[in-house]
Amino acid sequence: MAKRPPTPPNPPATAKPRDRAAALFRRLFTETDEDRAHEEELDPPRPFIEHFIDLRDCIVRCALAWVAAMLAIAPFAPKVIALLQLPLRSAGLEGKVSVQGLEVGTGFSVFMTTMLWGGTILALPALFYFIARFVFPGLKRHERNLILFTLGAGLTLFVGGVWLCFSFTLRLALEALMALNAWMNVPTEILRADAYIGFVLKILLAFGLAFQFPLVLLALGWLGIVSAASLRAHRGMAIIAIFVVAMFLTPPDPLSQIVMAVPMCVLYELTIWLVRLRERLAATPE
Prior knowledge:
Blueprint: H1 17-29, H2 33-37, H3 39-42, H4 48-73, H5 77-84, H6 86-90, E1 98-100, H7 106-135, H8 141-183, E2 190-192, H9 193-210, H10 213-222, H11 228-233, H12 235-249, H13 254-283
Parallel strand pairs: 1-2
């Protein structure tokens, strides 16, 4: 069995916080001489056919995991639909507005939508695991650490965006839209089930993906494509762009736009700080 490269020693406890942070940064996300010396031992060259077989196995396992997840979520489809109707209750519309199927195949359409989306979300951990098993042997230690950090941060931001949307934005959007309908003398008492479920899922996905924007900027800053100074100099344009994107991704009411845009602006400021920290740590002498 190949030996693991020795881990650089931890800095002494009396070291300054900045020096300790720089040492931790280098240990996790930079390539050391020990890594280069043991690279061949950790990932020996293999014939192309072996990589092709591994790719085939990865695709088959991902497909089986996806199908299994969709079958596992199928019995809980009615509970998922009931969960997606909670924003109506929190908006005070329960009893005033009902979600109904207006076509013969509505139930089947909603069931398949629930299986597809729910199965995909449920299968994500297994998909990431099988893909990592295929990709990681060809990556260096610091590259694996960077990917794991990116996946963890991306998942956290996605869940945070979905939670914010489900807890606050959908309620505000439904209240505003129903009030607008009443003001326009077109009060709505029945919502098509397939249209309502599609509306909720699209808004949830939009929030989850929008919260990945700071992660993209952080990755560009990590690669040296953008700098903290350039992000700071274009802060005004970035805020305007964030509000424009939020306007297109949210329902047509200002409250939803603000609920999406304000956290994104805060994350933009946090990204500037992280990119600046990365630049300072990378410039710190060993």
